[in-house]
Amino acid sequence: MFKxxxxxxxxxxxxxxxxxxxxxxxASNSDIKGIQLVGTGDCLHPLxxxxxxTKLIEYSDGIFYIPEVLNVNxxxxxxxxxxxxxxxxxxxxxxxLLFPNFDKLEESIDFLSKFGNLAKExxxxxxxxxxxxxxGLKSIDENIEIIPAHIxxxxxxLFGDTPHFNTMKEALGYGMNYINCIETGLSADPLMVRSIxxxxxxxxxxxxxxxxxxxxxxxxxxxxxKLNKLNYHNLVDSIxxxxxxxxxxxxxxxxxxxxxxxxxxxxxxxxxxxxxxxLNIEICPYCKxxxxxxxxxxxxDLSDQxxxxxxxxxxxxxxxxxxxxxxxxxxxxxxxxxxxxxLIENNDSEFAIWEGKSNFESIPExxxxxxxxxxxxKFWFIPGHDALYGKLQFEN
Length: 396
Ligand SMILES: [Zn+2]
Ligand SMILES: [Zn+2]
Prior knowledge:
Layout (H helix, E strand, L loop, with lengths): L1 E5 L16 H11 L3 E3 L6 H10 L1 E4 L2 E4 L2 E18 L2 E11 L2 H11 L12 E2 L3 H11 L4 E4 L19 H5 L8 E3 L6 H4 L9 E3 L16 E5 L5 H9 L3 E6 L10 E3 L10 E3 L19 H8 L10 E3 L3 H9 L6 H12 L4 H5 L10 H11 L3 E4 L8 E4 L2
Parallel strand pairs: 1-2, 2-5, 5-7, 9-10, 12-15
Antiparallel strand pairs: 1-11, 3-4, 4-5, 5-6, 6-8, 11-12, 13-14, 16-17
Helix pairs in contact: 3-4, 9-10, 9-12
The chain binds zinc ion (2 copies).
The site of one zinc ion has 8 residues, from loops.
């Protein structure tokens, strides 16, 4: 069987997250998007864990559901921030964790709570080296899956400019032997990952890292995975054995950290500055401070091969975002939301549209045309930089 998965989301207990996220919303909105297997988000957080324990029913080993939404399954998932000193520099890296069941999750909570306050943040800070964290978790259960998150993003990605590790070995020590899989993040795609030979051994997944269940956030990136059976063991096995059929990707230039730059808010006159890393400009011409170095720059630093793999991925743009661009207004406007829901009603789900369903009777022709342009690759972005998303542009 094939499942469209979003294995990295957040609950209302993560910083900057929408306060009305609940399990029902995650499930019902995943269903509308066409996400069939979704992470729980923040499963180390005591209050969210209570909600998970109350609402989730076991479907099979390590896979859960709620009775109101039978098309969507859950897996126990969180993100953590590892913080430690490495050659007298403080390093911070984000990891996505998947757990095989509630018992192993509780054991992991006992272990992790020695090194950080799990009740403070949905994505807790854990003061321990990435290598020792990996060893600790793997000694609880070898099936706890540890996935370096959004690996190139500037502040918390394993290869990002601030941690500034140039190899997985340097960042994770022997812990790297337990890494089967990495997450691209919004500003990178598999082509960029596959330009780095050290990553040849790992598979690639894409997730939304959403902090809201809105339709332009949840499932904005996702992964199609082949499973023999729907259970945790098979999920992890598929990730390890690279039974990843394809990923659905943001075009990297849409991501918030693609180019080097400074967002307008950093400058008194609100001037924006961004540039291709090819120009080798490190200092901002407006404020004379160091530019935020984007994902493309890091990939260029680390790239050492021409992609040797056959890649399968597809660029998508969240349809609710498309609606707001084409018809005006925001993703939160009632009119836009109702156009979106109508469209989905006629096509089963958003991912069904990306896979070719084309019942566009209910929508204006210019919107239908925009969807076709995305499917045919006739679009580009004014590149995102310094926490600013890229701006969508269509080709004629
Ligand atoms: Zn993160
Ligand atoms: Zn500046």
